User: What shape does this take?
Amino acid sequence: MNRREMSRRLLAGSLLGLGALGGGLARAQSQNAFPSRSIRMLVGFAAGGPTDNAARMIAEAMGQRLGQAVIVENRPGANGLMAVTELQRSKPDGYSILLASNGSLTVAPARFARLPYDSRRDFALIGPVVAYPHVLVVPAASPAHDFPSFLRMAKERETGLNAASVGHVNDLTIEWLHRLTGVRTTRVAYKGDSAVISDLVGNRVDFALLAPNVAMPLVQGQKLKAIALTSPGGASALAGLKTIKESGLPDFEVEVWNCLAAPKGTAPETINKLGAALRKAQENPDIQARLALSGQHVLIGDAHALGQRIDQETTRWQTIAREAGLPLLDL
Assistant: This one.
């Protein structure tokens, strides 16, 4: 090989090396630049409810940490499934994230024969966000005043109790209570809380499970009686109320919770940035205090623990639905 040929090859190799280095730098700069524009946070419920309120608090604080606005986009419908499917159609670039509910991730797989997604395979989990208990409430005229007296009343009534139920989480929670206590219960399906409240106050149904922000004003106004919480973490107005677990059912605990997820394939570096912003928002004392007003609390944990929780809850709800003989539904 002559000197000219050797110089040519060395120059070509140098250019290739610089090109590879430049490509690597470009990728690193692209990752470091995230986010360079606003992020949308999909919420599968209408504006004004506890899920939406929590989403807006967390989104604002995350935006301050990330240096870009995080904009809540409500996509209500099909018990939150509309927002889930919208996330599936989104690019895995971190600019579309979902405030998912356990109703969509762990309960829906136990109630529907086929879902257009897999809770574990189709999403990149960012982290848990917030949770709240349900409040077991009865009409003001009910003889029950705590959970043991509630069970006594139920067992003394030959026809059992009528339970007002809204959605699949309520359905399965009531079925689990029946399984653990043997109390005969007839679930009466409702489309929303307003009709449930009307029939509870009118003493036409025996009990229901309500979110704290719905139950508290009615309990404080002596229109309903609060019997027990389905998990710890009630608002200050319900701080003296025992959980069902504390009242004699050690295996029972149910809470409604939300988490953040991104489309499958989102870069780990992007997930880490979003997760760090989420945790910073959760540490904000003002956010914690505002959440407590509606009976919510922050739910701390990493993506690995969140995945384990999804697996465990899905198995539990599937077992309860199967043992209750509930048929699988079509979307």
